[in-house]
Amino acid sequence: MTGPPIRVLICEDQALVRAGYNTIFSAQPDMAVVGEAADGREAVAAAQRLNPDVIVMDIRMPIIDGIEATRRLAGPGLLSPAKVLVVTTFNIDEYVYEALKAGASGFLLKDAPPAELVNGIRTIARGDSLLAPAVTRTLIGHFAERLRPADTARPAREEIVRALTHRELEVLRQIAAGLSNAEIAATLFIAPETVKTYVSRILAKLDLRDRVQAVVLAYRVGLVSGTG
């Protein structure tokens, strides 16, 4: 391991799940669990006190839910937004899209293998987003109705169209459709490294933090349709 360990804060209301996360993360040579929280209010206070590198956030928690806690820690307008990895279960949680809109850097399902969870923390700690293409497609299908843009989205959509080149718009639509860089490259007949360059340009031009925000924005302004 080179450099300091990734400092992780676990926010989960079930003690057994917290203990499991702690065991998994503490066993990694490049991670250190710096704290735990059993509800959203504790999560916000602990994050502000401990300044972790990555916050693992459950959505369904008492007092303040994970969406509101994420918004307070990573939401729009914050000078130093926290890096939040949301963990959820699709068949009981219907607020994943809202959590992403609140500033989460990515999400995984609770039944993800430990290796996938650990890799997710490393990905977000590096400053990348974690929105797996397959999960993106599930998200789009599950929340098709609420992803429909409001009438007020048209001016924002026109502004984005003016800001991006035709090819950048194509790439943004492919990102929002849940395609990986390799899949976008195959679809548009360009090199994966070229796709990576386009993604970086899109994020910079639209002042977006990561790929997650690009997906959310594309749907909010109607660049792509949730009803497909």
From TrEMBL:
GO molecular function terms attached to this record: DNA binding
Residues covered by the Response regulatory domain: 7-125
Record PTM 4-aspartylphosphate, positions in chain: 58
Record-level GO BP terms: phosphorelay signal transduction system; regulation of DNA-templated transcription
Keywords noted in UniProt: DNA-binding, Phosphoprotein, Transcription, Transcription regulation
The keyword Cytoplasm is assigned to this record: no
SUPFAM superfamilies (UniProt xref): C-terminal effector domain of the bipartite response regulators, CheY-like
Ranges for domain HTH luxR-type: 157-222
UniProt cross-references to Pfam families, sorted A to Z: GerE (PF00196), Response_reg (PF00072)
Alphabetical list of InterPro entries matching this protein: CheY-like_superfamily, NreC/VraR/RcsB-like_REC, Sig_transdc_resp-reg_C-effctor, Sig_transdc_resp-reg_receiver, Tscrpt_reg_LuxR_C, WalR-like
Annotated protein name in UniProt: DNA-binding response regulator
Source organism of this protein record: Acrocarpospora macrocephala
